[in-house]
Amino acid sequence: MKVLFVCLGNICRSPLAEALFAQKMKNNTGWQAASCGTSNYHIGEPPDSRTVRNASRNGTPIQHLGRQLTETDLDTYDWIFAMDRSNMQGILRLAHTAGQRAKIHLMREFDPEGPGEVPDPYYGGDREFQEVYDILSRSIDGFIDRAVTPSEPKT
Ligand code: 4NP
C-alpha cells in the first residue's frame, strides 16, 4: 500500500508526516510513504530548518526534497492525505475520477482529538511547529490503528 502526504509547500507539514509514518511503521513491510506539495514554491528544497530542528528534538529523523503533486500521484497512491482544506481543494483540482477522489482524506480524520486541519506553521514559531508535530503524531497513530494494524479476529 502506498500513502501520500500533501501540504502546500512540502517543506513543513507533509515531509514531517512522511517521516513520522516511516518511523512508526519501521518493521511493517508492504507500506510505502511519500510527500509532496500542491504548489511549486519549494521544488528540490530540503525541509524547513525549523521543521528539521523540531523533528530532531522529538526524535524523528527527516530527510526529503520538495516536489509538486502531479495527476499521476492520484493513481499511484492508495491513501492521499491533505493537511488542510485548502490542500484538499488543490488535490481535488487534479482529480478526474470518483476513484481518485475517494482516496483523498483530511489528515485529522484520524486524529482522536480531531477532526480539523493541520495548521500551516510557516509564519509561526516553536510552539506552532510543536503543535504540528503533536497533531501529526496522533493522526498517524490513529491511521495506523484503524487502517494498517490488522484487526483482531472477532470471536
Ligand atoms: P507547508 O508549509 O505547506 O506545511 O510546507 C508552507 C511552506 C511554505 C509556504 C507556505 C506553507 N510558502 O508560502 O512558501
Description:
With 155 residues, this protein is α/β, with parallel strands linked by helices. Helices cover 39% and strands 12% of the residues. The chain has 6 helices and 4 strands; from the N terminus they run βαβααβααβα. The protein has helices at residues 13-24, 49-57, 73-76, 85-92, 98-102, 126-148, and strands at residues 2-7, 32-37, 79-82, 104-106. It has a 4-stranded parallel beta sheet with strand order 2-1-3-4. β1, α1 (13-24) and β2 (32-37) form a beta-alpha-beta unit. α2 crosses α6. 4-nitrophenyl phosphate (4NP) binds at residues 7-13, 37, 41, 120, 122.
In DSSP terms (H or I, runs of 4 or more residues), the helix count works out at: 6
Report the sheet-strand fraction: 5-15%
Classification by helices and strands: alpha/beta
Average the pLDDT over all residues and give the rounded result.
95
- End-to-end Cα distance, whole Å, is 28 Å
Bound molecules: 4-nitrophenyl phosphate
The largest pleated sheet is described as: 4 strands, parallel
Shape: globular
SSE string, helix = H, strand = E? EHEHHEHHEH
Based on CA atoms alone, the radius of gyration comes out at 15 Å
**Which residues form runs of ≥5 with pLDDT under 50?**
none
For the largest sheet, list the strands in their spatial order: 2-1-3-4
Chain-wise SSE layout:
Blueprint: E1 2-7, H1 13-24, E2 32-37, H2 49-57, H3 73-76, E3 79-82, H4 85-92, H5 98-102, E4 104-106, H6 126-148
Parallel strand pairs: 1-2, 1-3, 3-4
Residues 7-13, 37, 41, 120, 122 line the site of 4-nitrophenyl phosphate.
